[in-house]
Write a structure and sequence with these properties.
Structural class: alpha+beta
Strand order of the largest sheet: 4-6-7-9-8
Order of helices and strands: HHHHEEHHHHHHEHEEHEEHHEE
Bound molecules: adenosine-5'-diphosphate
Helix content: 55-70%
Largest sheet: 5 strands, mixed
Number of strands: 9
Radius of gyration: 43 Å
Strand content: 5-15%
Distance between the termini: 93 Å
Shape: elongated
């Protein structure tokens, strides 16, 4: 083995040792009380013991000196895996949960430590592939490699992967750096083992120990980690550029200088563009993630508000209904003369009180319906229903209203009987009442006709009037909650715009359809309900 090469290997030990001390100190001083930082500092101490002994061992000029430093070195390397595992468990917040396991690992490590100065661990030092004092493993040494470097580290990495898959945000970025560190650590650390097993592969990568220590330190010190893809791209571009530059300096002719410089420059330009595009892409992604997060929060708040609104409406409506029922009942009895005769003028006013409280009851019922629908508490009870019967009754009932406005209300019954439909009787009644009521409300001249039809094994109820009509572009939106038409709100100022919304929800619950058609303002409107017969 070339003496210079041995000197180089020993220097890697010195550099790793000094680096570990400096990194360990920085991390420790940053937060002296954090367990994560303390364990990391301890890990650095044992790495320093290992690396500095490594340096002294390779510089040793006699057998005993070399054997002593090899054994010192083993003390450090025996402690590395257990501290590393401890550090990982603290990092992923599982140190408490795995306390027993950790204690066990420390005990095992202590057992190995207790024999590290005996020939069971390192038998002797002898010449191996040019290294004058390479250690020869004792039988315990194999157990130690199996336990510490394979089982213990393997378990730590497995745990890391498991946690990584479910974490997000900063913690995820942090773990990425730890993985990068591991990717460097594996070849660096393990390049020390082949010679112990008579494989001629000197510890070339030993110098990278420093690199992975830096990765870990960065991961726990920085609170805004640079995206790892940027670091990797920069590293890759930088290394290739470096190699190309060295090549340029090694050129032997002017032609080679020109050629290699050109390649170097072209590579630098493209490398720069590549790094820029990676940075841009990551920025965009982060921006998107931020927006998504904000949107989620805003959505959550909106949902809460929406629920509060529904709850409020529901509670308020319940509270309103009871006194309203009492008012209506008493007024109705007064009007019927239960409490004696009254003046015509008072009776007139009493009638108005009755009409107003009736309207209020309808309003409250509508609000309650909406809050039930929106809370998903509305249920349908299906039964076979003879629609023609229902319509006949309703038309008779509502005729009073039509007569008051001096318009007609007719039900054009078909010759053939309409098939029965499977629907919720009360709900369909409410919907039809609403449509006829609206038709009367929004018609000044002419009247309202109700028809039924069958259409592709479906049944239709059609309510058409000769009233104020609908502006075509509003025909769809009238079915939204709290929405009123332009023409409608002019004629009738009191509506809330809930009736059609409730109707639509009721009909859709029963797998039906509801829609409106009109030729325009002043040209009457037609409302359709379509229901399946099966
Ligand atoms: P409201 O009648 O309380 O306003 P609805 O939801 O029942 O609430 O109706 C919504 C809107 O649809 C009404 O404000 C009105 O503009 C329009 N509309 C409903 N029925 C008719 C009709 N037959 N003719 C014209 N416009 C109508």
């Amino acid at each position: 083995m070339n003496e210079n090469l041995i000197l180089f290997f020993s220097m890697t030990g010195l550099l790793n040792g000094l680096g570990a001390i400096i990194i360990g100190l920085i991390v420790f001083l940053k937060r002296k009380r954090s367990v994560l930082h303390i364990i990391f500092a301890l890990l650095n101490v044992v790495i320093a013991i290992w690396a500095l002994s490594y340096w002294r061992w390779l510089l040793a000029d006699n057998h005993d000196q070399a054997l002593f430093w090899v054994r010192m070195l083993s003390i450090g390397s025996t402690l590395i895996p257990v501290l590393f595992l401890h550090w990982i468990l603290v990092l992923i917040n599982e140190a408490e949960k795995k306390k027993l396991l950790l204690i066990l690992c420390y005990i095992m490590t202590a057992v190995f430590l207790s024999v590290s100065f005996s020939s069971m661990f390192v038998k002797d030092v002898k010449e191996v592939f040019g290294f004058p004092y390479w250690p020869e493993p004792g039988f315990i040494y194999h157990l130690y490699v199996l336990f510490s470097y394979i089982t213990l580290l393997g378990y730590g990495i497995y745990k890391l992967f498991k946690v990584y898959r479910t974490t997000t945000g900063y913690k995820r970025d942090q773990l990425r750096y730890v993985f990068l560190g591991l990717a460097i650590a594996a070849p660096a650390g393990f390049s020390n083992f082949p010679l112990w097993y008579n494989i001629n592969f000197p510890p070339y990568f030993n110098i990278f120990v420093l690199a992975y220590m830096s990765c870990y330190a960065y991961a726990i010190l920085k609170h805004r980690l640079m995206d790892i893809r940027i670091v990797l791209t920069e590293f890759l571009v930088g290394s290739i550029a470096f190699v190309l530059l060295i090549e340029t300096f090694l050129s032997r002719s002017l032609y080679e200088v020109l050629f290699r410089t050109t390649i170097f420059l072209i590579f630098c330009i493209f490398g720069y563009l590549l790094i820029k595009s990676v940075i841009n892409e990551i920025k965009r992604r982060m921006e998107l993630e931020r927006l998504t997060r904000e949107l989620k929060i805003a959505y959550g708040k909106l949902e809460k508000l929406d629920k509060a609104k529904s709850d409020f409406i529901s509670i308020a409506s319940h509270q309103l209904r009871t006194p309203l029922t009492a008012i209506k009942a008493y007024v109705s009895m007064i009007l019927e003369g239960t409490y004696g005769k009254m003046d015509r003028r008072i009776k007139d006013k009493m009638k108005r009180v009755f009409i107003s409280s009736d309207r209020l009851t309808n309003l409250v019922n509508n609000l309650l319906n909406v809050s039930r629908i929106e809370a998903g508490k509305m249920e349908v009870e299906l039964e076979k229903v003879d629609l023609e019967n229902i319509i006949s009754d309703l038309v008779k009932e509502l005729n009073v209203k039509a007569e008051k406005k001096a318009i007609y209300l007719k039900f054009k019954k078909r010759k053939r009987k309409l098939p029965d439909v499977l629907i919720d009787k009360n709900k369909i009644k409410e919907v039809i009442i609403n449509l006829i009521d609206n038709a009367i409300k929004y018609t000044q001249k002419g009247g309202v006709i109700v028809k039924t039809q069958t259409h592709d094994s479906k049944v239709r109820v059609i309510v058409s009037d000769t009233g104020i009509g609908i502006i075509p572009k509003e025909a769809g939106s009238l079915f939204d909650s709290f929405t009123r038409g332009q023409t409608g709100s002019l004629l009738n100022t009191e509506g809330l715009g809930l009736g059609l919304y409730i109707a639509k929800r009721f009909i859709e619950m029963q797998n039906g359809k509801i829609w409106a058609e009109s030729k325009g303002k002043g040209k009457g409107s037609t409302f359709y309900i379509e229901l399946p017969t099966k």
